[in-house]
Amino acid sequence: MKRSTFLACLTAALMLSGTAMAQQAPPIVIKFSHVVAPDTPKGKAAEFFRKLAEERTKGRVKVEVYPNSQLYKDKEEMEALQLGAVQMLAPSLAKFGPLGVKEFEVFDLPYIFPSKDVLRAVTEGPLGLSLLKKLEGKGIIGLAYWDNGFKIMSANKPLKKPDDFKGVKMRIQSSKVLDAEMRSLGALPQVMAFSEVYQALQTGVVDGTENPPSNMFTQKMHEVQKYATISNHGYLGYAVIVNKKFWEGLPSDIRATLEGAMNEASRFANAIAQTENDDALKAMQASGKTEFYTLTADEAAAWRKAMLPVHADMEKRVGKELIDAFYKEAAKLGFKN
């Protein structure tokens, strides 16, 4: 065989071998852990992202979704991400305060968002992006905000006036703002992992809690709560985050593809959140297990009057300038705090 022919054959063989090896290379695994049910807005969005990511990378990425605290509970998942035991989370925004990024607790302030339009102006604008940037010092990249929705209060007694909260043990996430919110009503806040709430309500360890309807329904909390008040007093949202070292170590084309998939999954998540909450509320009302009450205008005003001082109380912790920036976004749309 001529030398030139031999070299051509060898080159072709090496190319084929390299292609075969590339095809046989194991996929990049992204473990995506979260604490809520698969049929919540977050659970559905996580599955939607998984499907897009695997399709668009043509199998080079495999996303393993672990819902319902299968891997880690509330307090454990953030450390697991920083250590690289999981690559992706979608924790509630309240989780970043205990991590040391207290500014995120601004989202917990009662009545900070007078409308969904104000919320979207914050999360999709420079203000929301600047907050995500603050996570990088903790070894975390913030990719997107996902809605869950506005919260309602539930308990085993009617909650119509601020005085009705006195002495009621209310489960909260670990957040100084949420602690202050409950204390402003005279309630006794109890920090507890989300996965433990149903049993705690069932056994009387706590008397009530606050959640968007979709979380309340999918965790069957309406089965162990006699009353609920449609108050829309606060917002529950998530930030989709990844381990910084893992994300920056991805091939650039893979990272760009995943960013595109995340953008589409975020639009999907935020589009379905309201519908999911509306459907969950209707289902709970139809069950007859919980009596739902909508605040009158006067009652809603009394709740606001009781809770709005929390804004001023939290200025040193969250940052007065940041709170004022949220007010300015609301003012642009004609709202005044």
TrEMBL record:
GO cellular component: outer membrane-bounded periplasmic space
The keyword Magnesium is annotated on this UniProt entry: no
Keywords: Signal, Transport
Gene3D superfamilies (alphabetical): Bacterial extracellular solute-binding protein, family 7
Entries under CDD domains matching the protein: PBP2_TRAP_SBP_like_1 (cd13674)
Signal peptide: 1-22
GO term, biological process aspect, one: transmembrane transport
Family as reported in the entry's similarity comment: Belongs to the bacterial solute-binding protein 7 family.
Name of this protein: C4-dicarboxylate ABC transporter
Organism this protein belongs to: Paramagnetospirillum kuznetsovii
